[in-house]
Specification:
- The protein has about 425 residues and is α/β, with parallel strands linked by helices.
- It has one domain (about 60-365): TIM Barrel (Alpha-Beta Barrel).
- Helix content is about 30%, strand content about 20%.
- The chain has helices spanning about 80-90, 105-120, 145-150, 165-175, 190, 200-205, 210-230, 240-250, 265, 290-300, 315-320, 335-345, 350-365; strands spanning about 5-15, 20-30, 30-35, 50, 55-60, 60-65, 90-95, 125, 180-185, 195, 210, 235, 255-260, 305-310, 380-390, 410-420, 425.
- Strands 1, 2, 3, 4, 5, 15, 16 and 17 form an 8-stranded mixed β-sheet that branches.
- Helix 8 links the parallel strand 12 (about 235) and strand 13.
- Helix 2 (about 105-120) runs parallel beside helix 3.
- The longest helix is centred in the middle third of the chain and has 18 residues, at about 210-230.
- It holds the Pfam family DHOase.
- GO terms for molecular function: dihydroorotase activity.
- It is an enzyme of class 3 (hydrolase).
- This is Dihydroorotase.
Length: about 425
């Protein structure tokens, strides 16, 4: 690295891995954290010195679930625009989903994405490879070759593998390569053509529903298969109380099981759909308020390991449709941190705990460096003011699409600077 040393002083140093929250300074040299602490006052000759003014400094966020349009859907998001959106949200590492065109089910496509990311992304970008060929759920991909090419996990994105035999084979094969399978847990037959959470509110709107039981049934099946194969398994997004109890039993049994939820499901419930607001149409659907509260409690308890943005940009034509016909998806990269701070301000969990679910735990699951504020760790950092309020204006978003459910929402938590390997990529 040719960058000169950088000293960030007068900062609130938050290390989510250790749970510490102290005042001090942090020195960056050669792309890594060279030193930090309350007694660090001097910098090497020629270093750049930045006074943080008491703002919070933590490891950059690691988002395990985001859709980038390359290849095939560049009109929705490119690697360049998506990475700029990530940097603006304090996200320094992104895992992109495989549901592109063509699908990321071949080592050559993994290599292509890594080369495109090297040339166009301002943040660390890692591809997730498809679990089954063409995302069709019938034949598993070459997990070993894909992992060797650079895939960090295996998933069919927003599709579930309904065939239990195929799922068992994939889990068994993944175990031999210590590969992580990330699964969308929803029985496609029971979910059917539903467009929102099944229940009274759905009936009032005259829409078809997707019951929470579709999620719980698939998750229960997967837990039993994990118990049989002992393979590393991660439930991508759980959204209801039944799934939380299934996750609890899996963890109590000592299975290699983890789970996550999305910032959308922690922030909204089914009533936010209101008068058919398509920006709130996501997959899995938003659930009842009781489920949202249960998710927040499970996150605070540690049952839910990570929080993802589930960033899924859609163009205007796909969202300006009748609710039942519009595409699923909402933006999330630029609002994930500030939306998560709502939970901190409401007293549901501490700031280090929130950042652990947004950085340390996903980095650990993926086997990636980062997520820690310690000497020698990569200088992938976010400096933010957790108390500064703002009103979100979609026109200021860096994503090519503007389908954010936080349109004109009042939020707190402004990202001041994002650094990747010690280089400022957003300010």
């Amino acid at each position: 690295m040719s960058e000169r040393p950088l000293l960030l002083r007068n900062a609130r140093l938050i290390d989510p891995a250790g749970g510490t929250d102290t005042r001090g300074a942090l020195l960056i040299q050669d792309g890594v954290i060279a030193d930090l602490g309350p007694n660090l006052a001097t910098a090497p000759e020629g270093a750049e010195i930045v006074d943080c003014g008491g703002a919070a400094l933590s490891p950059g966020l690691v988002d395990m679930r985001a859709f980038f349009g390359e290849p095939g859907a560049e009109h929705r998001e490119t690697i360049r625009s998506g990475s700029l959106a990530a940097a603006a949200g304090g996200v320094t590492t992104v895992v992109c989903m495989p549901d592109t065109d063509p699908v990321i089910d071949d080592p050559a496509i993994v290599d292509y994405l890594l080369r495109r990311a090297r040339d166009n992304s301002v943040v660390n970008l890692h591809p997730a490879a498809a679990l089954t060929k063409g995302l069709r759920g019938q034949e598993m991909t070459e997990i070993g070759l894909l992992k060797l090419a650079g895939a960090v996990c295996f998933t069919d994105g927003a599709r579930s593998v309904a065939n239990a035999r195929v799922m068992t084979r994939a889990l068994t094969y993944a175990r031999d390569f210590d590969a992580l399978i990330v699964h969308h847990t929803e029985d496609p037959d029971l979910a059917g053509t539903g467009v929102m959470n099944a229940g009274e509110y759905c009936s009032r709107l005259g829409l078809s529903g997707r019951p929470a039981e579709a999620e719980a049934i698939m998750l229960e099946r997967d837990v039993r298969l994990v118990r049989m194969t002992r393979s590393r398994y991660h439930a991508a997004i759980i959204t209801c109380r039944d799934s939380i109890e299934i996750a609890r039993r899996a963890k109590e049994a000592g299975l290699p099981f983890t789970c996550g939820t999305s910032i959308n499901h922690l922030s909204f419930n089914e009533t936010d759909i209101g008068d058919y607001r398509t920006f709130f149409k996501v997959s899995p659907p938003l659930r009842a308020e009781e489920d949202r509260q249960a998710l927040a409690e499970a996150l605070a308890e540690g049952l839910i390991d990570i929080v993802v943005s589930d960033h899924n940009p859609q163009d205007v034509e796909q969202k300006r449709q009748p609710f039942a016909e519009s595409s699923d998806g909402a933006l999330g990269l630029e609002t994930m941190l500030s939306a998560g701070l709502r939970l901190v301000n409401a007293g549901h969990l501490s700031l280090p705990h929130l950042l652990r679910s947004l950085s340390t735990r996903p980095a650990d699951l993926l086997g990636l460096p980062g997520g820690r504020l310690v000497r020698g760790a990569p200088a992938d950092l976010v400096l933010f003011d957790p108390e500064r309020p703002f009103v979100l204006d979609p026109r200021n978003l860096h994503s090519k699409s503007k389908n954010t459910p936080f349109d004109e929402a009042r939020l707190e938590g402004v990202v001041l600077r994002t650094l990747v390997a010690g280089r400022t990529v957003y300010q």
